[in-house]
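Lab meeting prep.
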Amino acid sequence: MTRIGASAALLSALLVGGTVTANAADTSAAAVGRICYSDLPAQAYDTLDLIESGGPFPYPQDGTVFQNREGILPSQSSGYYHEYTVKTPGSSTRGARRIVTGQKTQEDYYTADHYASFALINYTC
């Protein structure tokens, strides 16, 4: 699987150790970290496989538009992002873990804390 992606500015800044600036209305890219695909929890692989195959998904909320109300992800038009549940073992609810995808090819973010932070998934490490 070769799912990678990020905006050119963010990727350039990360690669050369630069910074990404943001104003008060767009705190997005500066707060997004990175996570290696190999460091994801096992359940995230299941979710990514379901996304790749188009479902079926275990929860009715999976695939719905993610509004980015927290403003952590890069600012985009409504409908750009979609969210999917990453099952949490032992949880009787959906839990806090999600994959959020962007419309750009292979742009996937992981959150383990219900949108308090995000990490762009790096599929090459």
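Slide two material, second protein:
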Amino acid sequence: MKQKQSGDSADKTSRRSIYLLPNLLTSASLFSGFYAIIAAIKGNYQAAAVAILISFVLDGLDGRVARWTRTTSRFGMEYDSLSDLVAFGVAPGILAFMWGLQDYGRLGWLAAFLYVATTALRLARFNTLSQSSNGSARDYFLGLPCPSAAAVLATSVLLCQYVGIFGPVRHVAVLIMVYGLSFLMVSNVRYHSFKEVRWLQQHPFSGMVVLILAIMVVAMEPKVTLFVLIGTYVISGPVLMSIRALRPRSLRSGAGHHSKDVSPGRDDGI
């Protein structure tokens, strides 16, 4: 009897440890986002950008770990959303303002505020759609995921430093980029979630080779390749939407039966 009780106690401890793991990853993502805010205020834009990218990676891990360990919960989803608002809303907004929007005065800080506000709206809509989907798996995000939008701003800072611009910049492209990302986050543009890549599941060895090659390409010049990869993903949504709009109506209706909308659960970004 004592052995059974000790076994049950060990199982509860093990389950509790597994439950804590995704929330610890979420906490680490929140910490990186908070550090990015401090670094941006101090003018250390590179450290702020790197911290946001670290949050980007951690945010992609916590949801997957929760699903792999079957420890998804309502608490985890809410905590993840609050963490995302800091790491991918407030932190990039402050970084964008301190780095490239200060000289635009009211127009600049309004752009930064709009970015934070649309991030909050994006997360609220995501959570609402997740509840209405009853947990069914989906292939697409509705609107640009906020981690991807934050990664665009972070990699833009790193790209500028790659070409020799280390301090604040004053270019209208930054202002347009912030407004554009804000619009895409609350738009109805579809973005692939990459949560389930069927080709990788069907060809695991080839997928491993492709992954190794991708890592090598990124490692060659990460400040450039990361910006190109994230930028390509951001552009892919409007491009694919335009292609679908130009298709004949019969083809669009046929494709609509096979495509799905918004991916529920934690907002894992790409």
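Talking points for slide two:
The domain at 10-256 is CATH 1.20.120.1760 (Four Helix Bundle (Hemerythrin (Met), subunit A)).
The chain has one domain: 10-256.
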